[in-house]
What does this fold into?
Amino acid sequence: MSEAPRFNRVLLKLSGQVFAGSEGFGIDFETVAAIAEDVKEALDEGASIAVVVGGGNIIRGSAAERSGMDRASADNMGMLATVINALALQDALERIGVETRVQTAIAMSEVAEPFIRRRALRHLEKGRVVILAAGTGNPYFTTDTAAALRALEIKADAVLKATNVDGVYDSDPHINSDAKMLTEITYMEAINRNLRVMDLTAFTLCMDHSMPIVVFNIKKRGNIKKAVLGRPIGTLIRGDASDT
It folds into this structure.
């Protein structure tokens, strides 16, 4: 461990798309292995890490609803998809010597523990990576909301939102070649500019509890460690100058 982390305990949010890698769908196991290596690197710096995973690489509840499926059923399928991703990440981490626990918001005791806040905290205190799956356990709530909620429950110092772009831009960089990345912005500025960092429920939850959000590019190796250490990568969303 070379330097003290700026954020001692973090909630890392991984979208389902991250698991797909360049394939766009399903699980790219080389990508998952690379993410596991980056998580271990950050863990070795002394950080305490919990991970919330999405499932959009397998199924999106909102997309299934547009095809005529009942939204609650579609979201339940999406929550199950997150468990598949969680187990893939668990395997990748444990193959490189990182002790983990998968906890789910929907009971499935044969493959994972139920989410119990005190148990999750104990695992984190013992240096284990806790992978949190099945969202909040409720339909109509995104895994962004689950990430914000779990971050507060485990007393995280920040939410690290891993994306496929370098940070938050003033406009869509895929459409506007002149889009500029914002290195630091307040919650209210993000809302007023309609920057869509997270869904509004999740973002408001972070704002109401002064939970910093760091948005960064997961494709660049070493970025999880840099985010934990507080190095200038991506975009930091905060309340005021007193927030860390």
